[in-house]
Amino acid sequence: MFATWASPAFAAVVAGGALWALFLAPLLLYQVRAYGGLSIPRAAGSAAVSIYAVALVAYTLLPTPGASSWCAKNHDGEIEIHAFHSIAEIRRQIELHGVIGALTTFTVLQVVMNVVLFIPWGLLARRYFHMPFALAVLSGAFGSFMIETLQFAGGWTLIGCQYRVADVDDLIANTLGTLLGAVLAPTFLFWMPRARDLARLRLAPRPVTGLRRAAAMLLDLALLWLAALALAPVIVRGLKAEALDGSLWSGHELAPVLAAVVVVIPTLRGTGATAGERMLWLRPAWPVPVRARRLKAALRPALALGVYAALMAIAGAWADDGALGSALWLVSYAWIAVVLLWTALDLRGGLQDAATGATTVDARGSYEQTFA
Hints:
InterPro entries: Teicoplanin_resist-assoc, VanZ-like
Transmembrane segments: 6-30, 42-62, 99-121, 133-159, 171-193, 214-236, 256-276, 297-318, 324-345
Number of helices: 17
Oligomer: single chain
Number of strands: 4
Strand order of the largest sheet: 1-2
Shape: elongated
Order of helices and strands: HHHHEHHHHEHHHHHEHHHEH
Pfam families: VanZ (PF04892)
Protein name: VanZ family protein
Number of domains: 2
Distance between the termini: 62 Å
Domain VanZ-like: 51-188
């Protein structure tokens, strides 16, 4: 019996954790833009939401019958609309097995698990989504109602027939679990900050760390690859008039041009920051005004991603030469890896800042001044 409830829990942790990891990068970027910086507690809360969402599906809708023959034999659906009928069933179990023995029966455990299953709903609704108490409880009741409706409708025809019993007592138990979670939320999730409180500090300067600078470069690299992915068909068909060969860099002649458009040109306006730096509230600064600031601003990303794109272009040009082409691919990846590591570890800003005499600062102002 324990395995009946333990297996979906294990699956929820694995699948929910994988789902959270898949969206982790966009989530962290959203936090930086919405809150001005990262919030580890909010990130942990999003992981809990992801795992819990998968757990709800696993416990309430899975496993499915999986065979059309099952629906042919079990086409008559079941619905229990008599409220509190579980109380009489629990009393019957107590008469048969005693109080202690009844606690281990499926009848009692099913009611208990229906309550426990929705306690996290109340916790998360109150402290992660910060709903008012009444709204948090009502949201749990509505969520349970939708699940029971889905069970009664057999997955809204996705399954083909009803394969779970729709029970009003499940709705009552789930709502009770939500209520308990909402009551316990301030005690168990007192450490969860409010999103709106974090948003109020959005424009407050933060320390500029090596990891933050390297993350900005990774964002620029991701934009470069996304542009290559989007433009690869155009480049190949326009320049070669051949079928795609699967390489994002098939039009290797335009790789440096692509890097210039995606990474370098954005530095020619405003503060001189790249698109990735703008996303993370960063910008380059020079200790004294320099006459060639625009040139230096453009040179910063060109030294890193520009060189990388040029190496990729050369590697693409020599792709027919197996050994040389492979070696050049490795050199290009090694180059960007070294530059990223240098940027993350060097307190002075890495290659880009060292070569141009710049300092990467927070675009919102001086962090040191705010704490002076």
